[in-house]
Request: fold
Amino acid sequence: MMMLLRGPMCFCLSLIFVHGLLLVSAAAEDYSRADFPADFVFGAGSSAYQVEGAAFEDGRTPSIWDTFTHAGRSNGANGDIACDTYHKYKEDVQLMVNTGLEAYRFSISWSRLIPNGRGSVNPKGLQYYNNFINEIISHGMQPHVTLHHDDLPQALEDKYGGWRSRKIVKDFTAFADVCFKEFGDRILHWTTFNEANVFSLGGYDLGILPPGRCSFPSRTDCIWGNSSTEPYIVTHNILLAHSSAVKLYKEKYKTTQHGYLGFNIFIYWFIPYTNSTNDMMATQRAFDFYVGWFMNPLIFGDYPDTVKKNAGERIPKFTKYESIQVKGSCDFIGVNHYATLYVKDNPSSLESDSRDVSADMAIQVMSTDQRDDKPKDVFPVSPMGLYGTLEYLKRVYGNPPIYIHENGQQMQRNGTLNDTARVEYLQAYIGSLLDAIRNGSNAKGYFIWSFLDGLELLDGYNSGFGLYYVDLDDKERKRYPKLSAEWYSNFLKGRSTSQSQIIAVDQTISSLGSHFSH
Ligand SMILES: *[C@@H]1O[C@H](CO)[C@@H](O)[C@H](O)[C@H]1NC(C)=O
Ligand SMILES: *[C@@H]1O[C@H](CO)[C@@H](O)[C@H](O)[C@H]1NC(C)=O
Ligand SMILES: *[C@@H]1O[C@H](CO)[C@@H](O)[C@H](O)[C@H]1NC(C)=O
Ligand SMILES: *[C@@H]1O[C@H](CO)[C@@H](O)[C@H](O)[C@H]1NC(C)=O
Ligand SMILES: *[C@@H]1O[C@H](CO)[C@@H](O)[C@H](O)[C@H]1NC(C)=O
Reply:
């Protein structure tokens, strides 16, 4: 019945996609750096809490992520020391240079720069980021900076509920102002918010990510919140804070600093589980909730109709002024893409009268991984998902400039440097990216997640995405290149990445690898 709520336009859209994508052949396999535009940028990334360490040093105070890990929520792991990049940043920048990275994506820890979330700037924090940025730039790489990467200062969470309150808009804008003023002479690419959709859903509906709030009676480990209302309120405040920071930049810094401001969302590629009309419409709904919930306000000035309809009174309304301010507030969109999911219609979830955002979607999602013989921690290689994502953004949102901010392969973190599954994944996805660019996608850059094996949100240190392994048992936190680092380096330096080459490199690394085998 719920399908009657859908407008016919969206329905046609999903049909176009399902059929359009069937035309695509396998991802480009034989390619090189030179096949990409010269101004396209390749890099790798991290975020502050996942690599910096020095969590209690030089005036930094806890963020909501520190609180989350210290409550035992990341497999008992925390970022107290992590990769110790805070002390080893020069060495890390040298590794970036050796790898051939053209750009590095990192985030600024708000509670290191402004320890109470508002008020005075911490000179030690300021010095660290100045040093780090200068080090990156002096080696000819571009710094791409994220302002909020899951690490709101705990002080603001305690003071007024953090992102649940409108008060956050003023404090976030003030934090952004400090960053623009202090670092903006050297930063051209700013992303206000990382994975806003996942932050909102994971942190306030499911309660599985910082700040870990939810209202499921069955859950004992989340902080009691309100899964029906808080994600919508938080999303609204995030969009207002983002647009407020952008407005400030345009008024105060743009003419002298000439930078670009973007917003990052996590995008699954969704495919209908069957060709039934209901599953195809459910697939469009999945895009509306995961992507449109943010992209529609940013591009068109309001939430998608489906989202408004299913959330009813629980979703805040934009005033005319807010709508104008949010609309068009991005110079680019940052995309984190890892995986493809099947979507099935699930109309019964709309029957409950205390619905959360997940129930409002009225979908059921399933892994597309049909393999029984592969380890569950390795993502299936579905490069078409990246192609589809870029085509979708092109056709639905007018082809905005896109940075793939995160893409990479998760593997068990067991000391092996022979990460062939990661090499296969990257080779396939970068090929698919090239296909999308050749068909007109406005993709401008690609960052592998992640440069180092850092603290992962859900998994702590049990699995990693890094091109470099970090030995956590070693006080020096020594870094070791994996096969993927060599592969990416060869690609970036215009060398062959063909199979024979990889085998040769593989052998070099295996001698290192033996160091770890137990
Ligand atoms: C390539 O782009 C055009 C224009 O957006 C679109 O009509 C076409 O379906 C795309 N081709 C594929 C294979 O996706
Ligand atoms: C969530 O907030 C709404 C609106 O204030 C309220 O009606 C509902 O009962 C709350 N739910 C929970 C689980 O507290
Ligand atoms: C959906 O239809 C296409 C052709 O239009 C077909 O190739 C595909 O196998 C169908 N999928 C399912 C799950 O039936
Ligand atoms: C390490 O994990 C990978 C999968 O992520 C697996 O293929 C490999 O066999 C493991 N190695 C050891 C030594 O356990
Ligand atoms: C690396 O792993 C691949 C597949 O997992 C295997 O075929 C290859 O022999 C391994 N190489 C070394 C040097 O261990």
User: Anything to note?
Assistant: The chain is about 45% helix and 15% strand. Residues 215, 226, 228-229 surround 2-acetamido-2-deoxy-beta-D-glucopyranose (ligand 2) (CB under 6 Å).
